[in-house]
Amino acid sequence: MLQVMVWRGHADGGFRRYDVPREESQTVLDVVTHIQRRIDSTLAYRYACRVGMCGSCAMTVNGRARWTCRTHVSEVARDDRLEIGPLAHLPIVRDLVTDMSAFFEKLAKAKGQFQPTKTRRDDFARIEPTSAPRRAIDAAIECIGCGVCYAACDVVAWNAEYLGPAALNRAWTLVNDARDAARGERLAAVAGDAGCHACHTHESCTERCPKHLAPTASIAGLKRATVVAALRGEL
Ligand code: SF4
Ligand code: SF4
Ligand code: FES
User: Fold this and answer.
1) How far, in Å, from the CA of 52 to the mean position of ligand 1?
2) Is the separation of the CB atoms in 31 and 73 below 8 Å?
3) Does the pLDDT value for residue 202 go beyond 90?
4) What's the 49 CA to ligand 3 centre distance in angstroms?
5) Strand, helix or coil at 199?
6) Which of 169, 143, 7, 150 is nearest to 65 (CA)?
7) What is the H or E stretch that residue 170 is in?
8) Rounded to the nearest whole angstrom, what is the distance from the C-alpha of residue 58 to the centroid of ligand 3?
């Protein structure tokens, strides 16, 4: 039997214990689902795909942000004990559900939307697959916005305005996109006190990203690009 401590309530809530039967190949999401379906139907949690595609099942498991659907109990349980809480650095809606609004608003603040230079009537842009900008995009583009890196980042905890690793990683993909029209605007958006220069390169985001992306490297790229733009008087 697993002894599972699960966060219940809001920010002023607390952990409640549930005993869950141990099963073969059981994931942490299976444990949460068992509790909600068999023990306490009032437990609020979130998931969609169960196969590591959507990122919506991210929670704090034994103190670390993880995708619960891709985390086997056998990897994380200590003496058949688990502690499951909501993602850090985001307001708690209830139980294991956080409000991701600030996280997504920061993607917008970092100018994370593609600004096209062409219309559908124009010819395709030709981007050399082996070019340095294209390779930089390839290394960072697979982010699914799960918030694990954001929950793992100390700077987000100290500075609520900090754009955070996911938004900055997204900005870096667009800074490298030759088809995009907003490069200067985007560099200006990420160059301020809450932007890339606030990152202390501790790499928790890169260690924790379930997609094995490296936001720290993207942020280092933004640091270089913003300094070059500033020296050229473009910011
Ligand atoms: S960079 Fe990785 S951890 Fe961060 S939101 Fe994207 S997929 Fe999730
Ligand atoms: S490397 Fe930068 S963005 Fe990543 S966790 Fe550390 S401070 Fe946050
Ligand atoms: S439920 Fe979609 S990634 Fe876990």
Assistant:
1) 12
2) yes
3) no
4) 5
5) coil
6) 150
7) helix 165-175
8) 7
